[in-house]
Each structure stands twice: as structure tokens, then as C-alpha cells.
Amino acid sequence: MERQEQLELWHSGETLKPAIQNFPGRPSNEPTEKAGWGLVHSVLTSGGAFLQKVSDCAPIWTNPGFFHRAVDQAAASGPKVVVGFLRERDADKVEDSTLDNTHPLRPGNADWTLSHFGDITPPLTAALEKELKRLHREDSNIPLWTTQVDSEKFACYIAAKFYEKHGSIDISGLPDREVRKVLKETINEFRNWPGMENWTSKQKEKARNGTLNLIITDGKRVFGVRDGAPTNESRQTFIGSHADSAGMQEALFATDPFQPLDGSAPIKWSRVPYHTVFSLNLDQPVKAQDEVKQLKTTSLDK
User: Fold this and answer.
1) Cα separations in angstroms, 184 against 73, 179, 275, 283, 301
2) Could you tell me the maximum CA-CA distance found in the chain, to the nearest angstrom?
3) Which residues make beta-bridge pairs with 109?
4) pTM
């Protein structure tokens, strides 16, 4: 039984630290010794934004000082984007045993990272590997996966699509609308993989039952995909707003809504619409009401 939790925080105020500290503390039916975690935060400079990652494939309680130093570093200045990911897997899964396998993941040297909450099921995994190898043989700018995580292979495929359409695997120079467009086209292509009509009914069902809930950031913007069945409670994506003591509004995304541990004002959560590609950026003001309406969205179905 796999359990994954992913937390996206977009913060500018003093509540960043307690909000992050809440993320590894939620109850779980899985043994805590199977957990791994990762934090990526943006560092904004005059030359743009770059991403810094700190992670561990061991449980937080085995080295709490390391985790809290990472939280302090991520909370040191703002405004910024922070992505946190908590993952629990079965004991026989190799993903938890290697530091490189921790989310968020970066395809090659791209200027963005991806966190994936869901599944990529066979035989799509094998088909994806074959296609990535072909693309890399034709152009070495297309990155290949370096970990044992299927999510990284999909990240490499998204990078290949950005390269195909814009000549670069980076996204920092692209308008929000164009990034959402490429993500939409890639998701829909993945759902209708060439040759899928020749697969068995069982293979098609397995391939299409995968879920591609994603959070992507280049340090200044957040892009996401809300996939999965509308009624699947374990595959939801939520947006919330929260005000710090100075009245600064902060936007948060989470797959598992939570409330601050410090007793500050509660977070108001709303569901992100099903089958939607969405985006939010640091230059976009956050309002306390109508959280979903402030998202820039592109439907996967139109």
C-alpha cells in the first residue's frame, strides 16, 4: 500500500516555518520508519530565481536537527516558493533507500522541479523509457532519468516537450499560458499514447488508471495538474489562503489540507477543479476570498 503526501507552500511571511513544520507531523497508518522527505525552496537574486533542494531518505525523527535546519533555511527570506514532499512506501521498494530518489525531482539541468502525487502504471512506463532513449539518441539535450523513480521519467518527457516546442528544457522565459499549454498537450498525449489501441484491455485499463497530479515550480511560479477521478478523495488538490501577523496573504497548495500548529488564523481550503492545469506566480497578489478563482487555469478536456 503506497501513501504519498505532497505539500506546496507559496509564502512571504512569518508563518512559513510553522506551516512547513506541520507537514511531516500528520498522522499516518504507515510505519514512520518508511518515510522520506524533500524540501525545495527558491532563492531570488538580481539574476533571477534558482532552486535549492534538501532531502533525506530516512525518517525525520532520525535526524530532526537536519530537518529543522532545512526548514529554517527555507523560511529565511521571502517572498518565495517552497515545495515540501513526504513519501511513505512499502519496505521492499527501492525508492526510499536512495537520496537521489527523493522528490521534488529535476529533469537533467532544467530550471524547474517536479513533484508527483499518483501513479504511472505499466505498460506506459516501459513505453516511456523506450521513447526517451530514442529522443536522447537523436538529441542529447533531451535528459534521461538518473533515479529509480518513474516520476522522473515523466519529468524528462515533459522537458522533451518543452525542448521540442521552444528549443529549451527550461521554462523561466515562457509565459504562464504557454507553460500550461505544453503541460496540457503532454498530459493528453500521455493518456493517448501511440499504439495504445493495440494493447490488451487490461493494459489499457492499467495505463489510464494512473494519476498525474503534479506540482512544478521554477522558483517564481507554481504550475500544477489536478488529475484523477473527481470522487477519489486520495487524489485531490486543494488551494488555501492564510494571513500572517502583518496581514500579508499567503497561498498554499496541498493534497492533504492541514491547519497551522501555532494556533494562528485558520487556513481556508478549496478544491482545485478536476482535470485542470493551473498556475500562480509571485507577482500575482493573493486574495483571501475566492482562492480557486485567482488561479490561472487551462482545462485538460477542452
Assistant:
1) 34, 9, 10, 23, 9
2) 59
3) none
4) 0.83
- DSSP code, position 145: -
Assess whether the previous peptide bond of 123 is cis (omega < 30° from 0). yes
Q: How far apart are CA 124 and CA 118, in angstroms?
A: 14
Query: pLDDT (tens digit, 9 = 90+) per residue, 261-276?
Result: 666 677 778 888 888 8
Tell me the backbone φ, ψ of residue 292, rounded to 5 degrees.
-65, -40
Question: 174 CB contacts (<8 Å, ≥6 apart)?
Answer: 162, 166, 182
Q: Tens digits of per-residue pLDDT, 126-152?
A: 889 999 999 999 999 999 999 888 889
The rounded distance, in Å, linking the Cα atoms of 41 and 53 is 7
Quote the radius of gyration of the chain (alpha carbons, Å): 18
* Strand-by-strand arrangement of the 211-217 sheet: 113-119, 211-217, 221-226, 276-281, 296-299
pLDDT band (50, 70, 90) for residue 31: very low
Ordered domains of the chain (ranges, CATH) = 3-297 (3.60.20.10)
Cβ atoms of 256 and 5 within 8 Å: the answer is yes
pLDDT per position as a tens digit, 226-235: 886 655 655 6
Q: Give the containing element (helix H, strand E) for 55.
A: strand 48-56
Q: Which residues of 48-61 are buried (b: 16+ CB within 10 A; e: fewer)?
A: ebebebbbbbbbbe
Q: How far is CA 249 from CA 175, 258, 287, in A?
A: 24, 17, 7
Q: Are 102 and 55 in contact (CB under 8 A)?
A: yes
Q: From CA 51, how far away is CA 111, in angstroms rounded?
A: 8
Supply the pLDDT for residue 239: 77
Alpha carbon of residue 91 to chain centroid: 23
- pLDDT 10s digits, 275-287: 889 888 877 665 5
Residue 23 CB burial class (10 angstroms; 0-12, 13-18, ≥19): buried
